[in-house]
């Protein structure tokens, strides 16, 4: 196919999705986006990007499948254990000074990292005075996150992550094994608010003491990264703390001067102005 024609088809598809459903993928990193669109073409058994567009605009179930492919849902309990160790050592001391704590986990995917944070806060005696807001643009992965049910065969790997993250008990204390599933305790869910939120099109909805937005920005182009950085900045209280993914940073963003580094390796920052 002619590259120019392919680019037109993709632009029209993304514009159609935005106009019809409100999901804005127009500024996602193009190489990754193109691969995923063609994956959808194959999975939906249509002949072209234009044919995929027609199906998407008339079939909401197709749109849900499209979102699952375009959403990057790679996650794990205590993923990047050093990040959570840095949270214990460098973020928690400040959080202890607040009577009530609001934390936003933006782009929470299927929820493993949200439960990781809930476990950590429980062990540090802060969960009772914390409200965890966990958001994602994809309602399908949010439904799985709300359930808090995961494959039991992953728990051995997760238990190792938990110990490296400074875990103080046994990970199995926090879930019930049933058939081939691990079901997290209801007590871990009680202070979590799950909600659909699109970082690209939706605005700030509260002020937070901590925001985690990990491994999301890497899939956006510079225009979109700047927009999301603005949203995160506006949503943090002064001296609030921001945690990013290992390949992300506030460096080179327009808000670089507004943060100080808490941990350069683990990408923790504090808003100072």
Describe the structure.
With 273 residues, the chain is an alpha/beta fold. The chain folds into two domains: 3-70, no CATH class; 81-271, Vaccinia Virus protein VP39 (Rossmann fold), CATH 3.40.50. The chain has helices spanning 3-21, 30-43, 49-58, 60-70, 81-95, 112-123, 139-147, 155-164, 186-189, 222-235, and strands spanning 101-106, 130-136, 149-151, 175-178, 181-184, 192-196, 208-213, 236-244, 259-263, 268-271. The strands form two sheets. It has a seven-stranded mixed beta sheet with strand order 6-2-1-7-8-10-9. Helix 6 (112-123) links the parallel strand 1 (101-106) and strand 2. The N and C termini lie far apart (50 Å).
How many domains? 2
Quick one: overall form? globular
Largest sheet features: 7 strands, mixed
CATH architecture of the largest domain: 3-Layer(aba) Sandwich
By oligomeric state, this entry counts as single chain
What is the CATH H-level superfamily of the largest domain? Vaccinia Virus protein VP39
Overall structural class, as computed from helix and strand content, comes to alpha/beta
Number of helices: 10
Q: Radius of gyration, Cα only, in angstroms?
A: 20 Å
In the CATH scheme, what's the topology name of the largest domain? Answer: Rossmann fold
Number of strands: 10
Helical content stands at 40-55%
The helix/strand order is HHHHHEHEHEHEEHEEHEEE
CATH hierarchy, class of the largest domain: Alpha Beta
Provide the low-confidence segments as ranges: none
Strand order of the largest sheet: 6-2-1-7-8-10-9
Amino-to-carboxy terminus distance:
50 Å
Overall pLDDT confidence: 94
Proportion of residues in extended strands: 15-25%
């Amino acid at each position: 196919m002619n590259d120019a024609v392919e680019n037109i088809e993709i632009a029209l598809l993304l514009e159609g999705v935005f106009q019809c459903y409100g999901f804005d993928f127009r500024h996602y990193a193009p190489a990754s986006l193109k691969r995923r669109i063609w994956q959808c073409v194959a999975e939906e058994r249509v002949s072209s990007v234009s044919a995929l567009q027609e199906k998407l605009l008339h079939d909401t179930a197709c749109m849900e499948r499209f979102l699952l492919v375009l959403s990057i849902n790679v996650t794990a309990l205590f993923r990047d254990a050093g990040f959570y160790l840095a949270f214990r050592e460098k973020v928690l001391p400040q959080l202890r000074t607040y009577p009530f704590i609001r934390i936003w986990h933006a782009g929470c995917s299927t929820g493993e990292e949200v439960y990781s944070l809930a476990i950590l806060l429980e062990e540090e005696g802060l969960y009772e005075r914390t409200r965890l807001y966990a958001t994602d643009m994809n309602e399908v992965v949010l439904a799985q996150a709300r359930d808090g049910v995961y494959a039991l065969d992953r728990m051995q790997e997760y238990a190792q992550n938990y110990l490296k993250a400074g875990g103080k008990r046994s990970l199995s204390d926090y879930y019930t094994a049933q058939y081939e599933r691990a079901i997290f305790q209801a007590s871990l869910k009680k202070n979590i608010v799950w909600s659909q939120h699109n970082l690209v099109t939706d605005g700030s909805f509260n002020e937070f003491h901590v925001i985690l937005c990990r491994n999301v920005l890497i899939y956006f182009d510079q225009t979109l990264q700047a927009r999301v950085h603005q949203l995160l900045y506006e949503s943090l209280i002064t001296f609030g703390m921001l945690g990013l993914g290992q390949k992300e940073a506030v460096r080179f963003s327009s808000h670089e001067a507004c943060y100080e580094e808490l941990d350069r390796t683990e990408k923790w920052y504090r808003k100072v102005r």
